[in-house]
Amino acid sequence: MNEDPREFRRRRIEAGLSITDLARQAGVTKSHLSSVEKGTAGFSPRNLKAIAEILGCEVHDLLLPEPHGQDDAEASRSVA
């Protein structure tokens, strides 16, 4: 799950869409979209692209920011 739950919700609300409306337009279930907004689930790249198009943004706008100042080895050590 790389989606940013807060950003998902913010952009959905700014677009004037309910969870039901966005789920219907994107072809996903309302419960799955709700889980993504809670940070407990993620979307496939295909669904992320569809949702970004509906919300008028880019896929990367819906993702958590990359940590700065860490290379891959440092990032993996900090997770372990």
The structure class reads mainly alpha
Give the helix level as a range of percent: 55-70%
Number of strands: 0
Strand content: under 5%
Sketch the topology as an H/E string, one letter per element. HHHHH
| Number of helices, where a helix is a run of at least 4 consecutive DSSP H or I residues | 5
- Rg over alpha carbons: 14 Å
Shape assignment: globular
Task: Give the biggest beta sheet.
Answer: none
Question: Which blocks of ≥5 consecutive residues have pLDDT under 50?
Answer: none
The chain-level mean pLDDT equals 87
Distance between the termini: 17 Å
Describe this protein's structure.
With 80 residues, this protein is mostly helical. The chain has 5 helices and no strands. It has helices spanning 5-14, 19-26, 30-38, 45-55, 72-79. The protein is globular.
Features:
globular, mainly alpha, 5 helices
Topology:
Layout (H helix, E strand, L loop, with lengths): L4 H10 L4 H8 L3 H9 L6 H11 L16 H8 L1
Helix pairs in contact: 2-3
Give a concise summary:
With 80 residues, this protein is mainly alpha-helical. It is built from five helices and no strands. The radius of gyration is 14 Å and the shape is globular.
